[in-house]
Write a structure and sequence with these properties.
By secondary structure, the chain is of the alpha/beta class. 20% of the residues lie in helices and 29% in strands. The chain contains 3 helices and 9 strands; from the N terminus they run βαβαβββαββββ. The protein has a 6-stranded mixed sheet, sandwiched between helices. It has a 3-stranded antiparallel sheet with strand order 1-9-8. α1 packs across α2.
């Protein structure tokens, strides 16, 4: 029997919350949950990017329904570990979603401001239905009342990176989700 090589912890992480295997397993089960919710019907996925790009891609591979994909870009953190206040729409939708079933996907639900803003925008476009799927739910940071329909993992109030989540556009490519070391959670001085 082959021994599985253990991946070393990235030096900038204090700890790992979810391994690559745990994420893959949960994404697969979320695909099953979505199949139950949507049956065989078509739906439109709206991904909030950049953070949800990896999660969305992997989740779409677990769905055999016909799906359409659109993306919306929101700025809410900049180079900080706390939300900058009101999220700003940087790039909006291109697909017509009127009378279509829509699944909004984001990487993390923390303050609720981004999801509330985007779901409000989507509702104004008259979809047949709107559901929300998030990889991570950080309930301890909620400032706007909002609950997702599908949640990958609930997490404590820690600043996490990896698997699409970033700090100052870094760490998105890590295959795990981990807690960034506190001493690295300041505005970067990277060149």
């Amino acid at each position: 029997m082959a021994v599985k090589k253990r991946t070393p912890v990235h030096p900038d992480l204090e700890s790992i919350l979810f391994t690559e295997d745990q994420i893959k397993t949960r994404v697969k089960s979320l695909g099953t949950e979505l199949k139950k919710a949507y049956g065989d019907g078509e739906f439109t996925i709206i991904a909030i990017i950049n953070g949800a790009v990896l999660f969305t891609a992997d989740l779409m591979r677990e769905i055999d329904n016909p799906v359409r994909l659109d993306c919306i870009r929101i700025s809410s953190y900049g180079e900080k570990t706390k939300s900058i206040g009101t999220p700003q729409i940087v790039h909006s939708l291109t697909l017509d979603i009127a009378k279509r079933h829509v699944l909004l996907i984001d990487d993390i639900l923390d303050t609720g401001k981004t999801i509330a803003l985007v779901s409000g925008l989507v509702r104004k476009l008259n979809p047949a239905s709107l559901r929300v799927c998030v990889l991570l739910d950080k309930q301890g940071r909620r400032e706007v009342p909002f609950e997702a329909d599908f949640v990958g993992f609930k997490i404590p109030d820690k600043f996490v990176v990896g698997y699409g989540l970033d700090f100052a556009e870094r760490y998105r490519n890590l295959p795990c989700i981990g807690v960034l070391k506190p001493e690295l959670q300041n505005p970067p001085e990277w060149a």
